[in-house]
Design a protein that fits this description.
By secondary structure, the protein is mainly alpha-helical. It has 38 helices and 10 strands. β5 and β6 form a beta hairpin. α10 crosses α11, α12 packs antiparallel against α15 and α14 runs antiparallel to α15.
């Protein structure tokens, strides 16, 4: 197969292994399924109305209906405003809950029908994995296929999000609603669930702690681990075999990841103690999953030595087990004397339980008594597997046992692999304190240039000496960072190396930023590049801003040219992970330039890695909204530069996206299957350019023109001196910080008057989206397209519709524009923004009109989403139900700001309910 040709690029539109259109990603698209969905929503909303009347009073239901009908009428805004003017907080809470719970119920019904529709669109013989594996068998080089299947690893990484703080109790009820709908339950059962939902508090009594966010992620990860992950891995193995391919026994094609408990960047609540607590929680969930599978195996594997022999290896392991766990032997030998598999698995069950006890109590690992990591557990299962296969039991071994083995490889004993993230400056501050105390430098460490720091740290990394003597104590300014590294090292020894093996350096701007981490990791015995080279940690730069992305290739070149760092990469299997940040690059330069620079950065990184003989794993830091890299992930993979996907991939999943993709097992299966199939497709069938170099060079030229004009327009908006006041006045972003809906502060720590630069990307996107301006998802593209057209590139823009990158960008922006409603936004501006600053809204409206016009000129359609009338209608209906929440939010924001520090707790509760309700209605607010 043709290998990568540096300097050219890219894919045509339809290269993915399965349909993953933007429309299907967003909602139901067929008329038949839409009718069924509407029927279920009417049924649920009628039940919610009855519950509301019974429990809050008929007058509240009457008000809800007046507001709902008023919002949909010709005089909607005025009617609703009059109904809500001066509303008391108690009634506001009831209204906000009513509309928010409508969206919760509508969302789960839509998930069910979307799942059914996707199954209909993809019958068994057209499933994504089957399609791509058969293509690989027919079209790709067999040796390369074997290599990729051996190395393949998809890792979705779950992160916390301020608007996705739904309580586990509520999630559980909604899951039961879906189950009831799916099996055609009667009205009485469904109505009882709606009653239970209404009587369950939507909001935790206090601000969430990190462990609360971890429990939320663990809720989803546990359900994935119980069913979806083993089901998908079974399907992968089966489809590969049917295509004449083989998945190696030790492959790990799917692994779950998380940031919750490890993301320290700007979150003082993530301490080493919290990280340990989160890992204990995750491990407990994983061990329960394995224990259930082992118990099922004990029930199933009734093979008797009176009928069939077993391997000597198994007999030897049972003898060792008896010596290590005599009580288990004494308890089960009478019943299982001739059933060695049951006896062996009883020892396994005891070790799993002992491991839970060890981790819960913090006691030391005892070989043979409990497990340290998944290796020992896997080996015990494999002893059983080898014995069965060697004694006419291959078909038996291919059942529950094979499923348990795959689960063990995917989940380990930790459920999710935890990434640690910390800001680059924290490491330099710690090293500055250490070097300054040593007194070896001619001036303070902080005064060194980046190049001087690089030279110093490069030498130090290859030095054999310890940087400081621990028994003398450590400088106070370095203590926190050193404690983190020591904690990671300790956790690897307590839970196994895989539990924490990725260290992400945010705001990485130079080679010195990664060398600093390598030196500190060496001090904690996790990195050694000298005479005994070893490493238990992947060091990962996060390129977040447009400036960093534009220099991504240069920075990687500098890293791999450093002898010590190159040795570190070799220690990690010649694999370098790079994280690409979508959020900050969008916040700084707008969606067009963010997407273009990320695309170009992938090309650069691909070519530099190939030059140094290093494999590249890209970690896409995508958010839920288009403004933070959201959209159909399968199409995003298909639109990546050729050769940039090499058997492995990571991507973040966060916000409402987690509920939308992973609440329902069938949707979770579909989502992960598309990702895995798309990754394999890109790794083996998109390793060479599908377009002539001259064509791509021309399209690059056009995109440079579009990007430059788009950024200039975007920067004129955000650099306007009045924008900070406009943004904080028109949106609920300031209230978000006070409402404590997440454990992480909404703003970066700093000094002086806060600015937009201090604001994190999530609340930046969140604020614009709550008001329906959604500026980060589209602003500037219209100016960019117009500039290209006026520069003579009109014909090229038409041709670029065949380019997957461009089509993906246009499609995502089109969806965002369809969710943008400047009529609703105008109410926020008119009510909440000082008249002297309202002129900026006219600028936003002008660019919006231009973007719609220019985008339709590219697509050739007369209106947005013209190709998807059912989806357009769905969004219209959602908009009608969202409107009351928007009006209520504006009224409550006005009351909250008028109250100052004397705000009623019920007022803040009502405001938070509107925030969550709009998030549920929009489905991707941050």
């Amino acid at each position: 197969m043709t290998r990568t040709v540096p300097g050219t690029d890219d894919s045509p539109v339809s290269t993915g292994p399965a349909p993953d259109s933007l429309a299907a990603h967003t909602g139901v698209v067929s008329e038949s399924e839409h009718r069924a969905l509407r029927a279920d929503i009417r049924r649920l909303s009628t039940m919610l109305g009855r519950t509301l009347a019974d429990e809050a009073g008929p007058e509240v239901l009457e008000l809800v209906e007046k507001v709902r009908h008023g919002a949909r009428g010709a005089t909607g805004p005025d009617t609703v405003a009059a109904l809500l003017d001066g509303i008391d907080t108690g009634t506001a809470v009831l209204l906000a809950r009513a509309f928010s719970q409508y969206f919760q119920l509508a969302n789960v019904a839509e998930q069910l029908h979307r799942s059914r529709e996707l199954r209909a669109l993809r019958p068994p013989d057209q499933r994504p994995l089957r399609t791509v594996l058969r293509r690989l068998a027919a079209e790709a080089d067999p040796d390369e296929v074997a290599d990729v299947l051996a190395r393949a690893q998809l890792r979705p990484v779950f992160t916390a999000h301020p608007t996705e703080s739904t309580r586990q109790s509520v999630l559980g009820i909604l899951r039961r609603v879906v189950d009831a709908l799916d099996r055609g339950a009667g009205d009485h059962e469904l109505a009882a669930l709606v009653d239970l939902l209404w009587q369950t508090d939507d909001i935790r009594p206090g601000p969430p702690m990190v462990i609360d966010e971890a429990r939320n992620i663990a809720w989803f990860a546990t359900r994935l681990g119980e069913r979806t992950v083993p089901d998908l891995l079974d399907e992968f193995s089966r489809e590969a075999a049917d295509a004449g391919l083989q998945i190696p026994a030790d492959a790990r094609p799917l692994v779950l990841g998380s940031w919750v408990g490890g993301d320290r960047d700007g979150n003082p609540n993530v301490t080493p103690a919290v990280t340990r607590e989160v890992l204990e929680l995750n491990a407990d969930r994983a061990l329960r999953i394995h224990a259930e599978q082992v118990e099922q195996l004990i029930q199933e594997l009734s093979v008797s030595t009176r009928v069939m022999g077993v391997a000597e290896e198994l007999r030897g392991s049972l003898a060792r087990d008896r010596r290590a766990l005599p009580r288990v032997h004494d308890r089960f030998i009478r019943l299982n004397a001739h059933e060695p598999y049951r006896l062996k698995l009883s020892y396994v069950a005891a070790r799993l339980e002992n491991t839970r006890h060890r981790l819960a109590t913090g006691s030391a690992h005892r070989p043979g008594i409990d497990y340290l990591g998944a290796a020992g557990y896997l080996e015990d299962l494999l002893v059983v597997d080898r014995s069965l296969r060697g004694h006419h039991g291959a078909r038996i071994a291919d059942g529950t046992l094979a499923r348990a083995i795959r689960s063990a490889r995917a989940l380990g004993l930790h459920l999710v692999e935890l990434d640690v993230r910390e800001h680059a400056q924290r490491h330099h501050d710690a090293l500055g304190a250490i070097f300054d105390e040593l007194g070896e430098l001619d001036r303070p460490y902080a005064e060194l240039s980046r190049e001087e720091r690089r030279e110093l740290l490069s030498r130090e990394l290859r030095n054999k000496r310890p940087l400081f003597r621990r028994h003398y104590g450590v400088p106070e300014a370095a203590a926190g960072v050193l404690e983190l590294f020591d904690t990671v090292h300790a956790l690897q020894h307590e839970f196994g190396d895989d539990v924490v093996r990725t260290y992400i350096v945010s705001m990485a701007q130079g080679v010195d930023d990664l060398l600093a981490v390598a030196v500190l990791a060496r001090e904690s015995y996790m990195v050694e590049v000298g005479s005994d080279p070893r490493s238990s940690l992947d060091l990962v730069p996060l390129f977040e801003t447009v400036e960093e992305l534009s220099k991504a290739g240069e920075l990687l070149q500098g890293l791999l040219a450093d002898p010590g760092y190159r040795r570190q990469v070799a220690n990690r299997g010649d694999l370098q992970e790079i994280m690409l940040g979508y959020s900050d690059s969008n916040k700084g330069a707008g969606i067009t330039t963010s997407q273009w620079q990320i695309h170009r950065a992938q090309r650069q990184l691909r070519d530099v890695a190939a030059e140094h003989g290093v494999r590249l794993r890209l970690f896409h830091g995508r958010g839920g909204s288009v403004g933070r890299g959201g959209g159909p992930a399968g199409e995003a993979i298909a639109s990546a530069p050729f050769g940039s996907v090499d058997a492995t991939m990571k991507l973040t999943e966060q916000g409402e996206v987690i509920s939308d993709k992973y609440s329902l097992p069938s949707l979770a299966h579909d989502n992960l299957e598309i990702l895995l199939a798309s990754m394999l497709d890109a790794s083996l069938l998109h390793q060479a350019s599908r377009w002539p170099a001259a064509t791509l060079a021309r399209w690059d030229e056009v995109m440079d023109c579009v990007s430059a004009a788009a950024t200039a327009t975007y920067r004129r908006l955000i650099d306007d001196e009045g924008l900070p006041e406009f943004f904080t006045s028109a949106t609920p972003v300031e209230e978000l910080g006070r409402l404590n809906v997440g454990s992480r502060p909404a703003k970066r720590p700093g000094r002086g008057t806060p600015t937009l630069d201090d604001l994190r990307a999530i609340p930046w996107v969140f604020g614009w989206t709550q008001t329906r301006m959604v500026v980060p998802g589209w602003y500037g593209l219209g100016s960019g397209l117009r500039a290209a057209r006026e520069a003579g590139y009109a014909a090229d823009l038409a041709g670029m519709r065949e380019w997957a990158f461009f089509t993906n960008l246009i499609g995502n922006v089109e969806m965002t524009l369809a969710k943008t409603d400047l009529r609703i936004a105008s109410n926020y501006v008119a009510t909440l923004v000082d008249p002297s600053r309202q002129g900026l809204f006219a600028q936003i409206r002008e660019e919006h009109e231009l973007t719609c016009r220019e985008l339709l000129a590219v697509t050739g359609e007369s209106q947005l989403l013209a190709r998807h009338p059912v989806l357009r209608n769905t969004l219209s209906v959602r908009g009608a139900y969202l409107e009351p929440l928007h009006h209520l939010q504006v009224e409550l924001l006005a009351q909250r700001r008028a109250a100052g520090d004397e705000a009623d707790p019920d007022l803040e509760r009502a405001l938070l309910l509107t925030v969550n309700g709009i998030a549920a209605g929009m489905k991707n607010t941050g």
